[in-house]
Amino acid sequence: MESSADKEVVVITGASAGVGRATARAFGQRGASVALIARNEKRLEQTKAEIEQAGGEALVLPLDVSDAQSMDEAAETVMRTFGKIDVWVNNAMVSVFSPVKETSAEEFRRVTEVTYLGYVHGTLAALRHMLPRNKGTIVQVGSALAYRGIPLQAAYCGAKHAIQGFTESLRAELYHDKSNVWVTMVQMPALNTPQFAWSRSRMPHKAQPVPPIYQPEVAAEAIVWSAHHRRRQLSVGLSTSIVIHGNKIAPGFGDHYLGWTGYASQQRPELRDPNRPDNLFESVAGDYAAHGDFDTRAHGSSPQLWMNTHRSMMLGVGLGAAALGYLFSRNHSH
């Protein structure tokens, strides 16, 4: 029987819905103690119930990640309750679907405060407790958009690019200090989450993720794996790898291609309701959970992720195949 002191303690921001909620459940299934941070207390309580049903325990911490002091206080509460922090997952985000010319400075500021500075606040809070123990992992939930900006999401893309730069700087400092604390970034593909139902939008039609679309449980699997393996970065989905590497090779082509296709690929045929609430400044009420509106189109697994997390096995298979090929060719050459 695992004692409470041996249980893994995980903090997840944006834990009330989408990727955060799926990840909280995944850690709960491992028997972890999970601290849940988001603005909507009702949905956090629902997430807590799911974790407890899965065999874990949970602590509800309703707050806005843009408030650095609240994040510090949350970390202190986790320490008082569970005694340590093993894993901190920065995941909370907001976005605006809008051309740059129609996006206000206030909207850019708010997306930056939540989607970028929320990660900074979470990282600082985690480091204050991990560095003295010389132990712990910080997982930054990123995106292919941390490398490649797309039209209509400039505020979000800018924040994800900022997280990437921030994380690289921190990683170099941890190496310099010979710290055993680890920071990793998981770059995500398009995911079936409520983001597209509640983000602020000025598009004429309803928003959608750019296909191919994956279920949030695929993202959760990658986050849990990254929390326990010292991989600098993990890309999820073949589309993410193509975007990241393709942008290194031909960024100019990406500019033109996204100019041609990026508006249509982010919209569904249905017209957007101009009166629907959005979650940019206030949480939206409702029973949103991990999944969004795209279950029929979303993939429940990623062969690319499996191969990426089983590199040793793939290398062994490759070497074995090469050896067999060599023996076969030798035997048939005589």
Can you give a write-up of this model?
The chain is of the alpha/beta class and 334 residues long. It is 48% helix and 17% strand. It is built from 11 helices and 14 strands. The strands form 4 sheets. Strands 3-2-1-4-6-7-12 form a 7-stranded parallel sheet, sandwiched between helices. The longest helix is centred in the middle third of the chain and has 29 residues. The radius of gyration is 21 Å and the shape is globular. The mean pLDDT is 92.
Largest sheet: 7 strands, parallel
What is the subunit arrangement here?
single chain
| Run of helices and strands | EHEHEHEEHEHEEHEEEHEHHEEHH
Cα shape? globular
Beta strand %: 15-25%
Structural class: alpha/beta
The average pLDDT score comes to 92
Give the strand order, joined by hyphens, for the main sheet.
3-2-1-4-6-7-12
N-C termini distance: 61 Å
* Total count of helical runs of at least 4 residues: 11
Helix fraction by DSSP (H/I, runs of at least 4): 40-55%
Based on the model shown, name its key terms.
three-stranded parallel beta sheet; alpha/beta; single chain; globular; 11 helices; 334 residues; seven-stranded parallel beta sheet
Give a brief rundown of this model.
It contains 11 helices and 14 strands. With 334 residues, the chain is of the alpha/beta class.
Q: What is the topology?
A:
Blueprint: E1 9-13, H1 18-29, E2 33-38, H2 41-54, E3 57-62, H3 68-82, E4 87-90, E5 96-97, H4 105-133, E6 137-143, H5 154-176, E7 182-188, E8 190-191, H6 195-198, E9 200-201, E10 205-207, E11 213-214, H7 216-227, E12 233-235, H8 238-249, H9 251-261, E13 267-271, E14 298-299, H10 303-308, H11 311-331
Parallel strand pairs: 1-2, 1-4, 2-3, 4-6, 5-9, 6-7, 7-12, 8-11, 11-14
Antiparallel strand pairs: 10-13
